[in-house]
Amino acid sequence: MRLSRTTGWFGLVGILLSLSQFPLYMTALPSVYDGVALGQRLFEVQTNVFTRVLIGMGLHVTLMVFGAGFSGLVRRARPDQE
């Protein structure tokens, strides 16, 4: 019972992390002719990209745990198919 709950929670967290990345990709750059605004926007993009990388790393960890738990659940449900 504990394995199925842990697997389910990690699956849900993986879905939430993947959905939380989407708005971070929807950014627009200002005109290249406005130097001050472009410089400020590129500085903000650094933070945005760093946040996406951290969320992506968390997503990979949660999906690895989910995959390991799911394979354990499949093995337990059908041991003859192993």
Topology:
Layout: H1 2-25, H2 35-77
Tell me what you see in this structure.
The chain is an all-alpha fold and 82 residues long. The chain has one domain (2-81). The protein contains two helices and no strands. The protein is rod-shaped, with a radius of gyration of 20 Å. The chain starts with a helix and ends in a 5-residue tail after the last helix. The model has no long low-confidence stretch (mean pLDDT 87).
Key attributes of the depicted protein:
mainly alpha, 82 residues
| End-to-end gap | 21 Å
Helix-and-strand structural type: mainly alpha
Q: List low-confidence stretches.
A: none
| Residue fraction in strands | under 5%
DSSP summary: helix tally: 2
Query: How confident is the prediction overall: mean pLDDT?
Result: 87
H/E element order: HH
* Beta-strand segment tally: 0
Shape: rod-shaped
Number of domains: 1
Main β-sheet: number of strands, strand sense, barrel status?
none
Specify the helix fraction band: over 70%
Specify Rg, calculated over alpha carbons: 20 Å
A few lines on this structure:
This protein has 82 residues and is mainly alpha-helical. The chain has helices spanning 2-25, 35-77.
